[in-house]
Amino acid sequence: MGKKSKKSVLPTEQTDTLKENLPSTRTVDVISKTVRFLILSVPNNNLSKKSPFAIQKGLDGISKNLKSVKKLASGDLLLETGSALQSKAFLSAKTFLDLPVTITPHKTLNFCRGVVSNDGLLFSSDEEILEGLSSQGVVNVRRILTRKRTATIPTKHVILTFSSTVLPSSIKAGYINIRVRPYIPYPLRCFKCQKFGHSQTACRRKQICSSCASEGHSYSGCQSKPNCANCHQAHESASKFCPKWIQEKKLK
């Protein structure tokens, strides 16, 4: 009789690594319940060499009637699914048009943020609020702070991040039902040139004082009369009463 071939056994460390890289069915089941935006990518950006008809046929082969499909500058596809079942189908896919495929949740589009306000929240830490609301889909908590002279004072207003694309109308904090309002972030204003729409790290313009709107110096130590760099009225560029600031906020 011939010798029996020995069954190859991977080292424990390598076996564990392979297990970690295999998609977990349970994980996909959990993620697909809330994820609706996915990124589809293939090696070497090979989708750029495929016709749109072939790509659509490949998508339909996984699940038909996606809500939307958009090609990104990177060459990847941004997919919007219509249900948890459709998200699960794409997250479970291993190949696309005979190519190995990676389909992952979009990093930001699957979350939404809302604001809650209640005096009772003043007596709860952010950690306690997160622990108490995690079962309601809250994954991050940030309290809104205000300044009074040199002191930073916590407020009763808290920004909640939900692991969902749909903002709930209310949450239950202990025994209290609290209405959830959409969170509208303040307009992005450059601290260098004072204009809206970009940050100082990307700014190539000259330094403008946020107090008097003059060139060549910053806010610190400015003794001139207030003058807004955006609307040219008698207030600082950081004022929330500025017509330009209000207009930018409405565009959010």
UniProtKB/TrEMBL annotation:
It comes from the Eukaryota. Coiled coil: none annotated. One of its GO terms (molecular function) is nucleic acid binding. SUPFAM superfamilies: Retrovirus zinc finger-like domains. Residues 189-205, 208-224 form the CCHC-type domain. SMART domains: ZnF_C2HC. This is CCHC-type domain-containing protein.
